Amino acid sequence: MTRTRLDVLVHELRSPVAALLAISEVYADADYSTRLRLVELACTAGASLERLLTDVTEATLRLTRLDLGRIALDACETATLGGSSIVVAPETDTALTVLGDATRLRQALDNLIGNAIGHSPAGATVTVTATRRGGSCLVSVIDEGEGVLPEDLERIFEPGVRATSARSGTGLGLAVVREIAREHGGEVEVESRPDWGATFRLVLPAASVAS
Fold first, then answer.
1. Which CATH class is domain 62-205?
2. What is the pTM of this model?
3. Which helix (H) or strand (E) holds 54?
């Protein structure tokens, strides 16, 4: 395994590990129904860990029809367990059917949400929405951070490139998101300007009725 691949693996293990730690911290004081939900979230994090550790050499897709909006809501719910302020926009659609790999798409959304949290000031809110646009399904993640310079809007998706040195990071998360999006026939978009935050969108083709 090359050094680059090892760096990516270490980076991607952080989200499911953080999720399991957050779940363990709140589990003891949770009521019965909440505990059932926490177990579901823990199982998802465990599946992500297993997939990352066994699929290191080659990123393969396990495609099924799935609800992208539901995956986005699960990612938001897990992020809030760690104390982050995540708002799911009212127009969020939980019936966005795509042909995709649930674990890989969750990986991409965890990275987008984690990136937004990391670039937002303390006490700020990250907003997530899932909608349709023509024949595409979109998940938008909006932060209240420092924004991205115009000349960096494309570079930030390159492995190892970071738009700022003010915060810690490896510069790998957005590169992974783009890779996953393109493997699904989609793309990741960004809109930003300095001091106005940033909006990142995971854009995937909607599944046809016959697929």
1. alpha beta
2. 0.85
3. helix 32-54
